[in-house]
Amino acid sequence: MYAIERTRIIKKYLEEHEHAQVHTLSNLLGVSEVTVRRDLEHLEKDGWLTRTHGGAVINQNEIVDPLLEILEEPEDDGSRDEIASVALRMVKDGDVVMLTNGSVNIRLAVKLEERSNLTVLTNDLSIALRISLQDSNKVVLLGGDMDKSEKALFGSMALSNLRKFYVNRLFIEVDGINDNLQMTVNSQEKADLILGSLELSEHSIVVCPSDRFETSAFYRLGKISIAGGIISNSKLNEDYKIRIFNSNIPLFTTVAAFEGSQ
Known about the structure:
The protein is α/β, with parallel strands linked by helices. It is built from 11 helices and 15 strands.
């Protein structure tokens, strides 16, 4: 179970019971008491609780966390998680990874806790916070102008900072792929950042849920062939699978399919 998921369960338990013992939470979460104590330490620093001998009590005058909205999980019908599971198989311990902003890459960021010694470069605040909670990985957040709707950083400063890095794995999240296999995004700033990131990556992969196919956002990014492959979920329309296959673009739609391609 991931740290963020454990934290959510601990908070819910404390809201319902007001206090909890370490051994109770250990059994509830299926993790060691050492792990529970570490989670309680983080929550105490954030003002959610006060640790006691053998447990913790909720703070009645709870400190409002301004980052709570950023850490909320995006809605998912399972497709984002499916794509993230496939993407995780492409990441090795010690890799330098870049994740552009988006709900799929947020799910991937959570799953990266299963890897170690990663350096993760991103322009997404939610991704950066999730990686920062992982003991064995580190994050580099690009500077730039804040887009409040995207909760991400863009602009000339982001592009300038981007040129300082080189990454093993780049995961590009796009907002739409149309009938001509053209990728689109919802802003020029986002298009510029993705195109800039392609120049510094050894391997690049597009992540796009099936419900974003046959749609177009406002800004054209280019053909999906500009990246090294694409990951979608298993509900992707067969017609698109055939088109992508005929274009000689590697397509991964399930973990099983990825394993079979090795």
